[in-house]
Amino acid sequence: MFAALLTTFLFATSAICGYRTSRQVGGIEANFWRITLATIFLTIWAWTWGRGFAGAPEWFMLSGLFGIGIGDSAYFQALPRLGSRRTVLIMQCLTAPFAALIEWLWLGTKLNRPEILCVGVILAGVAIALAPDDHLKISARDWKIGLIAGGFAAFGGALGAVIIRKGYATIAEEGISVDAGTTGYQRVLGGILIPTIALLLFKWRPAHAHGGWLEKKSFQVSLEKWGRIWPWVLANALAGQTLGVTCMQWALKTTQAGVVTAIIATTPIVLLPMTRIVEKEKIGLRALVGAVVAVCGVIGLTLMR
Predict the structure, then answer these.
(1) What is the pLDDT of residue 121?
(2) CA distance 89 to 160
(3) What's the CA gap between 11 and 72, in Å, rounded?
(4) Which residues are CB-neighbours of 252 under 8 A, at least 6 positions away?
């Protein structure tokens, strides 16, 4: 449970940083550099202190393909359109039930009634706290794209989480032990392919059609841009795909995907004070009531476990 709660805090930090970078360079580029840096950090870990390709890398790479490659790519399309608060609300409220359903249909792992009740309390609290009532400020096109992207992000994240559970089950059958940093490295390797292809298709070709990134004016603009946002990109990579994913792998090693994703669903609650400071959003009574409800659900779920 501690690992899942730590993941929640790290993912909230990552959402704030991801929003800042995606607003300035676009979701495709922000996502690519976040995953690239995380791959570098986790590669160093896996081949220095970890175990490289030990265990069941095929499952963890497949998890990365769905969870990071598809899920996070969709997440970074919703983020600049809906903002961090709404995007995380949509994604996390859908991920937990998706994960529980997929794990039941595929692996036959069921939640008992008290756990289902606690999951429902958590999701209800998140919905009460963060159901957006100011969406009319967003254009209809951005709202529609953001909702669809958030749904894809939730499904990709849920499927990726369940595949992680399958990977750990395979490792357990083989009687070996693999640390969370190593499995996180294997997962990010599977996730980097789609963001790389997306960057090539949607960024490089248009850039070269207009003189290329090495053209003097374009190069100067890029330097100025990256001079402003590199701390946010670095923090996003560390909090999200490096430390956050590692903690999530740690949590999923011992706990059902439906439970882990439900706890991580409280990420929007943790985001409340962060968005107040960084994005200047006000925290109303409804948000505070929802936070209390969600926290009570997490406490109940912890006691049930």
Answers:
(1) 87
(2) 19
(3) 12
(4) 161, 164, 165, 168, 260
Q: What is the dihedral of CA 30, 229, 79, 126, to 10 degrees?
A: 120
Domain range enclosing 161: 2-304
The position carrying tokens 């070269």 is 208
Give me the amino acid identity at 284: G
Contacts of 191 (CB under 8 A, 6+ apart): 35, 64, 65, 67, 68, 69, 72, 241
Nearest to 157 by CA among 80, 83, 69, 238: 69
How many domains are contained in the chain? 1
* Residues found in the chain: 305
User: Per residue in 36-66, pLDDT tens?
Assistant: 999 999 999 999 999 999 989 999 999 999 9
- Nearest-CA neighbor of 199 among 286, 107, 81, 73? 73
Task: Please state whether the predicted TM-score (pTM) of the whole model is above 0.85.
Answer: no
